[in-house]
Write a structure and sequence with these properties.
Elements: H1 5-14, H2 25-33, H3 37-54, E1 58-59, H4 62-65, E2 76-81, E3 90-93, E4 104-108, E5 128-138, E6 157-159, E7 162-165, E8 170-172, E9 189-193, E10 196-202, E11 210-211, E12 230-234, E13 237-239
Antiparallel strand pairs: 1-5, 2-3, 3-4, 4-5, 5-10, 6-10, 6-12, 7-8, 7-9, 10-11, 12-13
């Protein structure tokens, strides 16, 4: 799961919300999703198969792919061509997508590129290959995330509101439900978005994807987002994303 039982317990105590009983994958799955461990594995494998059948696995150009008539027409490069440090990928947002197409795709740059190449907003580093995906939905305080079979509510995090900038980073506006007045700062704003429910899946060769905010195989390098750009709700309190682990 996202973290070991020890790590989750330590986080919960630090937040004064009590210990969280996540003593094993099986007990967590049964308690949180209503699925057995095997049912969960089957559901996640089916989900990865479905997504890989719906999306282009490799793209020479992300810019061309999002143009009208392209395989990702209507999608957007939410951070330009900048690679995110926690993912090792360029996120491609498809906010209006409906299943089996997810609302966000993660495309890793060419292995022949280097971290020095990954911070150019307008500079492509293709060919790109898909390494993960995400589902998103508007967040309202007190709301529950969308339902996915054999996936727990607690596996969703909140990507907070804020302005995406043209250096690939983000200026957060925590909790804002509508765009605030633009800051009087020397920043190049791309666009603003409201808070979102978000959940990341990372493709695995054995067919069983990893669910984690960060890509467990991120190579290092790329742009870091602010610490408050994403958080989990633990007992109604904000908690930082834990380190990723396999299912």
């Amino acid at each position: 799961m996202f973290a070991t039982a020890h790590a989750w317990t330590r986080t919960a105590r630090a937040l004064s919300v009590g210990a969280i009983a996540l003593v094993s994958c099986a007990s967590f799955v049964s308690a949180e999703t209503g699925c057995t461990a095997e049912e969960r594995r089957e559901a996640l494998r089916a989900l990865q198969t479905q997504v890989l059948q719906a999306v282009p696995r490799q793209l020479d150009s992300l810019e061309k792919a999002i143009q009208p008539g392209g395989p990702l027409s209507g999608c957007r490069l939410g951070h330009g061509h900048v690679v995110m440090a926690h993912t090792g990928a360029v996120p491609v947002g498809c906010s209006r997508a409906k299943g089996p197409m997810p609302q966000l795709l993660q495309y890793a740059p060419s292995p022949s590129s280097s971290p020095a190449d990954w911070l150019d907003f307008d500079g492509p580093d293709g060919p790109y290959r898909v390494i993960g995906w995400a589902y998103t939905s508007p967040y309202q305080p007190g709301s529950r995330p969308p339902t996915l079979r054999c996936v727990a509510d607690s596996e969703w995090f909140i990507h907070d509101a804020g302005w995406h900038l043209k250096d690939g980073s983000m200026l957060t506006t925590p909790g804002a439900m509508s765009e605030p007045p633009r800051p009087k700062l020397d920043v190049d704003i791309y666009y603003w978005h409201r808070p979102l429910w978000d959940i990341h899946f990372w493709i695995e060769e054995d067919g069983l994807p990893t669910i984690s905010y960060a890509n467990p195989r991120a190579p290092g390098g790329g742009k870091h987002l602010p610490d408050d750009a994403a958080y989990y709700l633990v007992g109604g309190r904000k908690a930082p994303p834990p380190k990723p682990t396999r299912q």
